[in-house]
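re: ur question from earlier - yeah i can do the single chain one, its not a big deal. heres the input i used so u can compare w yours
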Amino acid sequence: MDTSKNRLVDYALYLLLFFGFTYILFLNPGKSRPLLSLRMSQCQTSKTTQYQMAVYIDKLDEALSTSSTENKTLIICIVNKAYVEGDKPMLDLFLDGFWVGKDTKTLINHLLIVAMDQTSYERCKFLKLHCYKLETDDVDFDSEKLYMSDDFIKMMWRRTLFLRDVLKHGYNFIYTDTDVLWLRNPFPHLSLNKTMDLQISTDNFNGNQWSEANPINTGFYMINSNNKTIALFDSWYANKDNSTGLKEQDVLVRLMQKGLFRKLGLKVRFLNTVYFSGFCQDSRDVRAVTTVHANCCRSITAKLADLTAVIHDWKRYKGSSDNQTLTFRWSNHTACRNSWRH
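and the output i got, formated as tokens:
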């Protein structure tokens, strides 16, 4: 009898405890809500963090993937405000080259314009090109930077740092200055072999495409992304602060002369000015010329004047007969030659 009573008491206690916990957890709004809110808040925070991580997109990688070919190759050009403003901006003239060039129109689909300020970025978007806004740590890169001025050198090093990032993202690219006119598709004259690490333009070609004695120009080159080329850019940029008064091209020349290319095992080809020409050395053959670079020139105004003359020369060539082609001559680069006097 006592055993039955004890069991009944135990059963009653169990029921009391059960209803008590139920009341605290679910029926008492003053007590239960903070506990449930905390659990829900923790759950929502976790889900939000996971969602943000899942949807995060590397903006640079997005720009590169959108403009590159299937084998992750693209064309890169860097501009600032000085190159997009005026009656006939440098960017517009640069694009004219693709329009009047031979087999060049479709290359625009793989051209990424890298803007160093908001004005040039907005102009790029207006032209419906592939655009990327480069963060410049509040440094003013929007005005014209005269050749070899302190700001010019800073801008060149910022360019080098950015292009190193592109290589580290696994993309191959042709870098081209905006003052390079593309009159023909350059790819037939460039090696697409992956063992060719770097193909770089020259101011004056010495006749040997493997000779490090060629005076290189970083205004136009093709580079493949691999450990060797990334190491090259790492070493190149690491010398920035030990090269007062030198532009980034001078530093690369010095590293090459010290044997860095050979040390890294780089296969480097120096481009013939017959195909990849400039104002330092005109192409001898208009039937073969691929690009024309306004090198050996100091100001944007002078470059615009003489590159416009190149466009006129090119149109004159395209409308001429074979006999006239044999006597073709480029216009004198008068404005660029005079730009050094000021």
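The two ends are 119 Å apart (CA to CA). not sure if urs matches, ping me
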